[in-house]
Amino acid sequence: MRIAILESDAAALDCALEILSSAGHLCFGALCDKTLHGLLKQVPVDLVILDWVAPDALRYDTLRCLCRHGSVIPVVLCVKSCTSQQVIAAGLKSGANICLEKPLGSAQSLARIHAFGAS
Q1: Which of 1, 2, 59, 87 is 20 to 30 A from residue 40's alpha carbon, by CA?
Q2: CA nearest 39: which of 20, 11, 62?
Q3: Dist CA 47 CA 42 (whole Å)
């Protein structure tokens, strides 16, 4: 599967890219929303993973943009245990498909990501 990952922390992005690439996915990383938008104009992807630990207004706009354009591309929110339930619920209400806790290397999170490729 081709996966675009928006992660604001460079080390966390590198880790996610490594984990998902090792699991057989072709991954593209972006450190900011603007870079993600440019990437999505150039590369067709099957899944988008968004850093959703502390989303700002721009991140909400990015999520709404991904979901508004009639896109069938699933969106996964990446959260931490400290992410408030209100923020997670707002992201899901704005169009995201699921949320997964960082880091993405657990068997459960990889299985849920792989399931998008099977549908």
Answers
A1: 87
A2: 62
A3: 15
**Cα separation values, 54 from 20, 45, 81, 83, Å:** 22, 24, 12, 7
Mean pLDDT, consecutive 10-residue stretches, the chain (119 aa), reads 96 95 96 96 95 95 84 90 95 94 88 83
Cα–Cα distance between 23 and 41 in angstroms, integer? 25
* Preceding peptide of 103 cis, ω within 30°: yes
Question: How many Å from the N-terminal Cα to the C-terminal Cα in the chain?
Answer: 11
Tokens of 80: 């931490």
Write down the pLDDT at residue 69: 64
Q: Which two tokens stand for residue 82?
A: 């400290």
Q: Are 98 and 77 in contact (CB under 8 A)?
A: yes
The vertex-59 CA angle with 112 and 65, nearest 5°, equals: 80
In the chain, at which residue ranges do the beta strands (DSSP E only) sit? 2-6, 26-30, 47-51, 75-79, 98-101
